[in-house]
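For the sake of transparency, this paper describes our internal protein records without simplification. Because each token names a local backbone shape, the row as a whole describes the fold. One such record is reproduced below, unchanged from the form in which we store it.
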Amino acid sequence: MFEENPKILIIDDIASNIQVVANVLKKHNFNISYAQNGKTGIERAKQIDFDLILLDIMMPEMDGYEVCSRLKKDQKTKDIPVIFLTAKTTEDSLKKGFECGGVDFISKPFKTAELI
């Protein structure tokens, strides 16, 4: 399962979103890393053995679906669970998220208890 302080990667293009999520998770002793775009997030995921990735869907250049698909195709990152943290929760977006390898969704604005 998880080690004592699980490592979580937050990938979101909006710094304030990262800050809010990180502040909540740090209070519960999670080790937090972040990336503000998909390319950097993928590179970071290949360098560090994360326990979980929280991924925004709506990002410029490479959206969260593409990031998740690339992570799931890479031998080094394919087993890291990806949870989409997003305001985009239509039936189509949920279906697409699961199809590309996501394991769950947390809608923004999130509830602290749900995030934990």
Summary: The longest strand covers residues 7-11.
